[in-house]
Amino acid sequence: MAFPDAQQLTDLLQPKLAERGLDVEDIKTTKAGKKSQVIIRIDGDKRPSSDVLEEVSNEISAFFDDKEAQGELNFGAGYTLEVSTPGVDLPLTAPRHWRRNRGRKVSFDLGDGKTQSARIGALNDAADAVILITASKKDVQARAERLENIARAVVEIEFAQPSEQELEAVRKTFEEAEN
After folding, report:
1. What confidence tens digit (pLDDT) does each residue in 120-139 have?
2. Residue 89: how many CB atoms within 10 A of its CB?
3. Which of 51, 60, 86, 129 suits a disulfide with 90, CB 3.0-4.6 Å?
4. What pTM was estimated for this model as a whole?
């Protein structure tokens, strides 16, 4: 059996993690001689604590060991496993990423190569459009943008607190913000 790829591992792990309300966000595998490496990034609507990450890591390790014993997986001579949450550099590619980062500032590109910045507001009920909030010294503007139009987006690291007007816009429903 060949060394498992990221998609195979995602397909195996997602149902197990879904029981805990978690999602596989990213898996990287590196085949390297005696010690291969498997790095798994997980997240949920409630960000997993370090205790939960430790429990999940132990469960995944036992699960992989069992699958290897059954001949269903082969990591070679051995592997190291790292389980953590994604960093801010994980691109926002799914509606759940936008929902989980509501209120945070994001850099995005609408496919024109121009990077823009806005604060993430509410998703619509269909989870295919998001409110993007921009602020100037005088006012706050909110606009709806379809997720399919956003070519790339990542959360920005922010040190300043947003204004109260921005926070008010973030708290609005999609319909309230759109009007």
Report:
1. 999 999 999 999 999 988 89
2. 8
3. 86
4. 0.83
